[in-house]
Design brief:
CATH topology: Jelly Rolls
Largest sheet: 5 strands, antiparallel
Distance between the termini: 36 Å
CATH architecture: Sandwich
Number of strands: 9
CATH class: Mainly Beta
Structural class: mainly beta
Order of helices and strands: EEEEEEEEE
Length: 159
């Protein structure tokens, strides 16, 4: 029986300073006040349907693998959203285009729940820095709420 080894073992490890690998977890919290506006944001207006909320930066070279959305205090009835990424420079990339629905669309934000990635899209390695974005739909938010977003991926370096 032969032993077959794939070429490049260990070459996709970023850093090599720990035996635990290169998994990265990024977490962002969106809290809104009683009027429905994002707390700690650059706008005091309530989040409206179609608004894009920038939640966090995603580093270049990160392989996006999974996300969770934890709605612990629901938004207003009918509020849904899409979770994905857009490039910080606003310019699309030929092989990895921006995708504001990469992790899912139609996510129910108006009921307490723990939601996982709903898309079946293949993992992508970001060629440049991007924003993690939540695009709202359905209705404007008009109440206090809390949504935590957790993104898992691997930091493979920007190569």
């Amino acid at each position: 029986m032969a032993t077959i080894k794939k070429a490049g073992l260990g070459m996709l490890q970023f850093g090599g300073f720990t035996p635990y690998g290169n998994l990265t977890t990024l977490r962002a919290t969106l809290q809104t006040n009683a009027a429905g506006a994002a707390i700690g944001a650059d706008s005091n207006a309530a989040i409206a349907a179609g608004d894009v909320v920038v939640l966090e930066k995603l580093p270049a070279g990160m392989l996006l693998e999974d996300a969770q959305v934890i709605v612990s205090t629901a938004m207003t009835a009918a509020v849904t959203g899409s979770l994905g990424f857009t490039y910080i420079d606003g310019v699309d990339h030929a092989t990895v285009p921006q995708d504001p629905e990469y992790f899912g669309a139609g996510l129910v934000l108006n009921a307490a729940a723990r939601l996982r990635t709903t898309s079946s899209k293949a993992p992508v390695k970001l060629p440049k820095e991007a924003y993690l974005v939540l695009t709202t739909a359905g209705a404007a938010n008009a109440k206090a709420s809390r949504v935590d977003v957790i993104v898992h991926g691997e930091r493979l370096g920007n190569q």
